[in-house]
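Help wanted!
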Amino acid sequence: MDLISTDVVIVGAGGAGIRAAIAAVEADPSLRVALLSKVYPMRSHTVAAEGGAAGVVKDNDSLDNHFHDTVSGGDWLCDQDAVDLFVNEAPRELVQMEHWGCPWSREPSGKVAVRPFGGMKIERTWYAADKTGFHMLHTLFQTSLKYPSIERFDEYYSTDLLVEDGRCVGVLAIEMRSGRVVAFKANAVVIATGGAGRIFPFTTNGAVKTGDGMAMAYRAGVPLKDMEFIQYHPTGLPGTGILITEGSRGEGGILVNKDGYRYLQDYNLGPPDPWPRKKAMELGPRDRLSQAFWHEQQKGRTIRTPHGDVVHLDIRHLGEKKIDERLPMVRELARAYVGVDPVHEPIPVRPVVHYTMGGIHTDIDTATPLAGLFAAGECACVSINGANRLGSNSLAEILVFGARAGRAAAAFASAAPAGAFHAAANGAEAAHARLTALFMREDGTESVSRLRKAMNETMETGAGIYRTERSLQETCRMLAELRARYQRVELVDRSNVFNTDLIQVLELGSMLQVAEAMAHSALRRKESRGSHQRLDHPERDDDGYLRHSLASCRGEDLPAIDYCDVTITRSQPAQRVYGGAAA
Amino acid sequence: MTETVTLEVLRYRPETDSEPHFQTYTAPYNEDWVVLDALNHVKDHVDQTLSYRWSCHMAVCGSCGMMINGEPKLSCHAFLRDYRGKTIRIEPLDHFPIERDLVVVMDSFMAKLSSVKPYLIPKPEKPLDDGEHLQTPLQLMAFKQYTQCINCLLCYAACPQCGLNDDFVGPAALALAHRYNLDSRDAGKDDRTGVVASNPGVWECTFVGACSDVCPKHVDPAAAIQQTKISASLDWFKAKLMPGASP
Amino acid sequence: MSRRPYVRQVERSWWLAHPRYVAYMAREITSLFIGLYCALLVVGLVRLAQGPAAWEGFLAAASSAPGVLFQLVCLAFAAYHSVTWFALTPKAMPLTLRGKRVPGGAIVGAHYAVWAAVSLVVLIAAGV
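Answered by r_m:
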């Protein structure tokens, strides 16, 4: 196999990865940074984020407010020192984006504008129309072109971390266009590969969200933290799962059931008026809204469509002018994909999987327990999002922790002596052999798409919005069976040039491992908190479970689930209160 | 009997094919489906060896550009209902070398994109502690439409000059340069002009306008290029008439 | 290396593949006829300078059947050239007035208005 030597390898070129690359080379311009991605950077899923990025800059707001909103939004599973750091650094990162050219929407005065968002007491979400992720990603990517020491390896699929002497020494990757296997030797590695929504059948996530980085770290012995917490975004389009931004509710949109009734008032989020009102009704946190849908569905009050049950998101009262100015993409998407013009008709929506709160266990400086390995963004769990993420915290998170990961990796790479690199010892040869074995397999009987579909179904059925002991046990059992069957998956395409069958087979392997961590973590957590809801354990149990779950890989055996403490500083767990009178 | 749709897809596997050739597939017809859904059905259930790029399925990542019945389109934004009753011919984007099947080699575009210095080159650097640059909604409006490019390359496929001249910097890259030139926070027009106002830059364009016709995001690169031609010409005259004067 | 990118040649007939390219080529060919008409006008000037007999000869040729046909064809192409040119002007010169984009139709309309006014002046001056 070929060998490329560099100082820092970053796997994943979305918002967090590109931010890390820029931070690394700004911290030390003499460093060589290799930025690997299985797709061209502009295709990373950051591009699809819509609503905005939260940061305190207005006079009517305070860091304390952002802190409390985030901690309570996360049902007190957030590490509060990390949240303090996050709310402190977010505003500066957002100003940095503006200095790099991000076209933030503005107030008439020329200052950046902010909009209200779910679960937040004061409006603080910076936005660029309703395509904030798109503008942020393109701003970051275009800015990265200024730095010659960032060397990009576009369409390189990373398969394994290379570990020697208890240290991460690089990454093995496939150059997709040629099939060439390349070992990257580095002094520090950052994983920024995003979440794993494609484990589920209905998701806002694009094809790339298959949890490859999480799986790589997991296999290398790094625990995955809080994997049971999977966010359903309340408003995705039926069928495609396309995201309809929370911003549409921030601007005043309402959710109604088949009787035209704003049902959220029945779930401790009311009263319905005055509206819009922060932290109430449709501006409640995502977990509560998605759970309300499930209950409405049980009561038979949702609307039947050929693509399943939906409720209606009504923004007609905003008027065409406001919709075209603040929510133009929402209008485009509704017209194109469900044939509805939201100026004249309500949009059919349903909860769809959107975000993975859990991920690679890191500390407040993005370091994992494996020396030389760092992680940031959706693939990581610091944790600032706890049991439920507030909308617009993620786009800010990728900047804050992407930058920290870049700086931390740069510092580590400069300080640490160059590691030993022996392909036999660090796993490169073994990984290469596993790939070759796929190509040589004569007895493959399982189809990658059938296995994937079975995984999707069992996860949605057993580990969806509401879970039970039985449903989770069945899902764990099914996943174990699928993992065994995966050993006989057939690689139909045996070619070298841009073999997407191979990529799908490898992605499925990642997803099955990550799904297993999710399901087992969920089975073990016998309480309800945030987005993890157990019908058989409906209450929150702080005595038993105010702790992070840690899922550790044990090869072909089932994962080991452990726990670690949550850092609580100044906000003691309390009731999550939304709705109520106007603030 | 469920209704079906016929796809004629241009295949090319460099290791086994001496040249590209069409292969026919059948997929179910669905009112809500796009061509990408049909391709995914083929890959999942009929032929796993078919290679193509895709990700977001909502026309924002720019991955899935292809020629569909001779027209450059995003396969996630080409609805089967618009092709009902017709055979759908799918080929890789024109004017790019074919890597494999529907995957084209994008290297030339990435290089052209970089060459126009598509990043903010500010007037004196403002310290972060001073907060954001002020930019009124009117100033934002001046360049906003040119920020919408998703780099899908449909414009390069549509533009005959891109087909005839490999060096042409091309619509998307030039539109992006224009985006920065119009941004009130930018002072980098002169840094870009060497590439933008060169022969393979805007002057290769003969205003066919096909790029703007096919752009799924209504960026209107043709407008960007013509405006750049005017502005570059005025700058050139100014420089000739007042040599040494600051721009 | 297994890679062997395939480069598709652009056919000479590329412009026949789609109506938008045919329309473009027609627009471009108008320049040929405008050029020919200019040549005709130059010839006319030369004949005028050569005296009344030469001038009468030129007028006779211009008003002959083939002469009139040629001028009509040139007029058609010149009109197509102008119409397509006007249609594209809003792209090349976007205007903002009092915080709003001036609609493209207004810019195009203004061009036609000026064209009509100038034509009127020319016709009056020519004693029509």
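OP: Thanks! One thing I noticed: The domain at 428-551 of chain A is CATH 1.20.58.100 (Methane Monooxygenase Hydroxylase; Chain G, domain 1).
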